[in-house]
C-alpha cells in the first residue's frame, strides 16, 4: 500500500469509526444515523422536501470554508420556510464575541487573547447527554433498506485498499473519547502538581490518555474537558483552577479565533497577518522531506499525515514556528538531533517507525550518517543507499536561515517606519 494512501486510509477509518459510534448511540435511543452522500447544497434541499423538514439544527463550524458552506445552506433552508438553529460547541467560546471585544479584529498575540478572555464569562458548561426520556415524543422512521441508503460505509466502499492496514492504535468515536478522558483525569497526581507536560519517550507513542484526534473530530466536547478538569483541580487543590491549566485548549481557541474570518490563513500570499517571506522553492527537497512523496506545501503535508490535523491549529502553528506571524524570535532554532536525543534518548521511537535504522547503536541512532562504515555494515544499513543522507548540514543551514530572517525583519521594520499606513 503506497504511503500516502495508507495514511489517508487511517484517517478515513477513524472517521468511519466515529460515525459507527454515533449510530450505535442512536440505536440505544431507538433512532439511527443517516449518512447522506453528496454535496450539502445539492442533497439537503432534496431531503428537506422528502422529509417535510420544519427545523434544521447543527453545530457552528468555526472555520472559513465551513462558515461559507453553512451560510449557503442556511439561506436555502430559510427560503424553504425552515427554521434554522445553530449552536456553538466545537469551541469553548463564540469566536465572534472574542473578535467583537477586540474592535472587530482577532487578537494576534496570546497575551491580548488572554486579556480578552479575562473580561468574558467562563465557557458554558456542557449540556447533559441525551437519554431515552428526552425523545419520548420523537419518532424516527427506519426503513428496511436504511443500511443500503443511509448506513455508514466501509473503507472498501470508499475505494481504499485494506489488506495491509495495521491494527487500530486510535479507535474513533465518543465512547472511546470519554473513556480516554476518564483515564486522563484519573492522573490526579499530575493535576495536583500541575505544570507544563514533560516530553518523554512514551509521549511520542499512542497512549490511552491521548485526546487530540477526538477534539479534532468532535468526539470529545472541548467544554466537557474544560469543565471536568476545572472541577477536578478545585476538588484537589481547594482553590479555583488557573487559566493556564487549560493551555492546550486555549491555544486551540486562539488559533481558531485568528482563522475564523481568514480563508487564506493557511497561505502566505493573500494572508493579511502573515509576513511575506521569500522562501526557497525547491520541489525536490520538499518531496524528500515529505517522506519521498510529492505532497502539498509545508502545513498541507501535515493535513495529509496527521490523524489530529486541525486546519486552524496546524496553519497557526506553522506560522508561529516559521516566525511568519504571532512570534518573531527567529534566532531560536530546533536541532533535530539534539531534540531527538532529549525526547527519545534510546531511540525507541526511531527503531519502531524507521526499522531500517533499528540495528544502529544508541550512540548513532539519532544521526546514523555519522556512524563509521563498519557500524553501518553491522547495522545492515548503508547511509545513502538504504537510508538517505541528510538533505542539508543543519548547523550551517540554520545559521544561514537566521541571517536571511534578520534581513526580512529589517526590511519589514523599515517599511513600517516609513509607511503612512496604520500598523
Low-confidence runs: 292-296
Q: Specify the CATH class of one domain.
A: Mainly Alpha
In helices, the fraction of residues equals 40-55%
Q: Might you state the CATH topology name of one domain?
A: Serine Threonine Protein Phosphatase 5, Tetratricopeptide repeat
**How many distinct helices?**
19
Specify Rg, calculated over alpha carbons.
25 Å
User: So what's the overall shape?
Assistant: globular
Strand content: under 5%
> What is the element string, with H for helices and E for strands?
HHEHEHHHHHHHHHHHHHHHH
Structural class: mainly alpha
Average residue-wise pLDDT: 88
- Main sheet characteristics: 2 strands, parallel
Count the E strands.
2
State the CATH architecture of one domain.
Answer: Alpha Horseshoe
What's the N-to-C terminus distance?
A: 51 Å
Which strand order does the major sheet show?
A: 1-2
Organism: Hyalella azteca
Pfam families: DNA_photolyase, FAD_binding_7
InterPro entries: Crypto/Photolyase_FAD-like_sf, Crypto/Photolyase_N_sf, Cryptochr/Photolyase_FAD-bd, Cryptochrome/DNA_photolyase_1, DNA_photolyase_N, Rossmann-like_a/b/a_fold
Protein name: Photolyase/cryptochrome alpha/beta domain-containing protein
Would you write up a description of this structure?
- By secondary structure, the protein is mainly alpha-helical.
- It has a domain at 3-139 and 172-255: Serine Threonine Protein Phosphatase 5, Tetratricopeptide repeat, CATH 1.25.40.
- The chain is 47% helix and 2% strand.
- It is built from 19 helices and two strands.
- A two-stranded parallel ribbon has the order 1-2.
- α3 links the parallel β1 and β2 (83-87).
- α2 (40-50) runs parallel beside α3 (64-79), α11 packs across α14 and α13 (299-305) packs across α14.
- The longest helix has 25 residues, at 3-27.
- The radius of gyration is 25 Å and the shape is globular.
Amino acid at each position: 500500500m503506497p504511503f500516502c494512501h495508507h495514511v489517508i486510509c487511517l484517517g478515513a477509518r477513524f472517521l468511519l469509526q466515529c460515525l459507527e459510534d454515533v449510530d450505535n448511540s442512536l440505536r440505544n435511543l431507538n433512532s439511527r444515523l443517516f449518512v447522506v452522500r453528496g454535496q450539502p447544497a445539492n442533497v439537503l434541499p432534496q431531503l428537506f422536501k422528502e422529509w417535510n423538514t420544519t427545523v434544521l439544527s447543527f453545530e457552528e463550524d468555526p472555520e472559513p470554508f465551513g462558515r461559507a458552506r453553512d451560510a449557503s445552506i442556511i439561506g436555502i433552508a430559510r427560503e424553504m420556510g425552515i427554521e434554522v438553529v445553530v449552536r456553538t460547541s466545537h469551541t469553548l467560546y463564540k469566536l465572534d464575541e472574542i473578535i467583537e471585544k477586540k474592535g472587530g479584529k482577532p487578537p494576534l498575540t496570546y497575551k491580548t487573547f488572554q486579556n480578552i478572555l479575562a473580561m468574558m464569562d467562563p465557557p458554558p458548561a456542557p449540556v447533559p447527554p441525551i437519554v431515552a426520556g428526552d425523545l419520548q415524543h420523537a419518532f424516527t422512521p427506519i426503513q428496511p433498506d436504511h443500511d443500503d441508503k443511509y448506513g455508514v460505509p466501509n473503507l472498501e466502499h470508499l475505494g481504499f485498499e485494506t489488506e495491509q492496514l495495521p491494527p487500530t492504535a486510535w479507535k474513533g468515536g465518543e465512547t472511546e473519547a470519554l473513556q480516554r478522558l476518564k483515564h486522563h483525569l484519573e492522573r490526579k497526581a499530575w493535576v495536583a502538581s500541575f505544570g507544563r507536560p514533560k516530553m518523554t519517550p512514551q509521549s511520542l507513542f499512542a497512549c490511552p490518555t491521548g485526546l487530540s484526534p477526538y477534539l479534532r473530530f468532535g468526539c470529545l466536547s472541548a467544554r466537557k474537558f474544560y469543565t471536568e478538569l476545572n472541577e477536578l483541580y478545585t476538588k484537589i487543590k481547594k482553590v479555583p483552577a488557573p487559566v493556564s491549566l487549560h493551555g492546550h485548549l486555549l491555544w486551540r481557541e486562539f488559533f481558531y479565533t485568528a482563522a475564523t474570518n481568514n480563508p487564506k490563513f493557511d497561505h502566505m500570499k493573500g494572508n493579511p497577518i502573515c509576513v511575506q517571506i521569500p522562501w526557497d522553492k525547491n520541489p525536490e527537497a520538499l518531496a524528500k522531506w515529505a517522506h519521498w512523496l510529492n505532497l502539498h506545501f509545508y502545513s498541507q503535508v501535515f493535513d495529509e499525515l496527521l490523524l489530529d490535523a486541525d486546519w486552524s491549529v496546524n496553519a497557526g502553528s506553522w506560522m508561529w514556528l516559521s516566525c511568519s506571524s504571532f512570534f518573531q524570535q527567529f534566532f531560536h532554532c530546533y536541532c533535530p538531533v539534539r531534540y531527538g536525543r532529549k525526547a527519545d534518548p534510546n531511540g525507541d521511537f526511531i527503531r519502531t517507525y524507521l526499522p531500517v535504522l533499528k540495528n544502529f547503536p544508541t550512540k548513532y541512532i539519532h544521526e546514523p550518517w555519522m556512524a563509521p562504515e563498519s557500524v553501518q555494515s553491522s547495522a545492515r544499513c548503508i547511509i545513502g543507499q538504504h537510508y538517505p543522507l541528510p538533505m542539508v548540514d543543519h548547523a550551517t543551514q540554520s545559521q544561514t536561515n537566521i541571517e536571511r530572517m534578520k534581513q526580512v525583519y529589517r526590511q519589514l521594520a523599515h517599511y513600517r517606519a516609513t509607511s503612512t499606513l496604520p500598523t
